[in-house]
Amino acid sequence: MFDYLIAGVAVVSGSALLLGGALNAAWLMELAKVRGLAAGVGFTAARMICMGVGAAVILLGILVATGWRPTWAQARLPIRSCSWKTVI
After folding, report:
1. CA-CA distance, 59 to 69, in Å (whole number)?
2. Which tens digits make up the pLDDT trace of 36-70?
3. What distance in Å separates the CA atoms of residue 88 and residue 86, rounded to the nearest whole number?
4. What is the pLDDT of residues 7-17, one digit of tens each?
5. pLDDT at 82 over 60
6. CB neighbours (10 Å) of residue 16?
7. Do residues 50 and 34 lie in contact, with contact meaning Cβ atoms separated by under 8 Å?
8. What span, in angstroms and rounded, lies between the C-alpha atoms of 57 and 7?
9. Are 64 and 7 in contact (CB under 8 A)?
10. Spatial distance between the Cα atoms of 79 and 56, rounded to a whole number of angstroms
């Protein structure tokens, strides 16, 4: 259930970045980090970077919701338990 919460937050925040960049939203460009990025790389490049980061966050949220785990994370799960606690 916690995976769905994390995935939902990721999809919502990623969608805000993706749509904010695509629609040239003023609220996105008023954020301090985005203004600093725009000062460094330019306005259009900053929008494209925000859209790329938003799409990546959405993809990660979808991966979390489907239950995907990297191989290094699966090795930490105990064999017969649903807990993240390591079995000694």
Report:
1. 13
2. 999 999 999 999 999 999 999 999 999 989 988 77
3. 6
4. 999 999 999 99
5. no
6. 16
7. yes
8. 9
9. yes
10. 31
